[in-house]
């Protein structure tokens, strides 16, 4: 009975969409990501290259004492794509945890 989360025909009464542009993941979602579980040997340059492989970044901050980094992409689609591609990815023998955050 219930409609699947992604409807091809556009859900009736589901907000004020822009007519057929609901294909991309979370167009108005967070553009900021948190990367945790970094290896102590992972460098800022390595992470920036990984981030830029998905899209342009507006902000990047590495917090080595917490083995963590925060980055903001120019679009929420890039953030969602990075999270999908690199969550639980291994870098320098550490599996990183990537999560979308508001910020």
Automatic annotation (TrEMBL):
UniProt cross-references to InterPro entries, sorted A to Z: Nucleotide-bd_a/b_plait_sf, RBD_domain_sf, RBM33, RRM_dom
Molecular function GO terms recorded: RNA binding
Organism: Neogobius melanostomus
Pfam families associated with the record: RRM_1 (PF00076)
Regions annotated as coiled coil: none
Span list, region Disordered: 1-38
Biased segments, Gly residues type: 8-22
Record-annotated RRM domain positions: 32-99
Top-rank taxon: Eukaryota
Protein name: RRM domain-containing protein
């Amino acid at each position: 009975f219930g409609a699947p989360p992604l409807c091809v025909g556009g859900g009736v009464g589901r907000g004020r969409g822009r007519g057929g542009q609901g294909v991309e993941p979370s167009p108005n979602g967070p553009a900021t990501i948190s990367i945790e579980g970094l290896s102590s040997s992972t460098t800022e340059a390595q992470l920036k290259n990984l981030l830029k492989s998905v899209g342009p970044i507006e902000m990047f901050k590495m917090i080595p004492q917490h083995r963590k980094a925060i980055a903001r992409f120019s679009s929420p689609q890039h953030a969602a794509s990075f999270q999908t591609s690199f969550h639980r990815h291994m870098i320098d023998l550490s599996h990183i945890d990537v999560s979308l955050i508001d910020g």
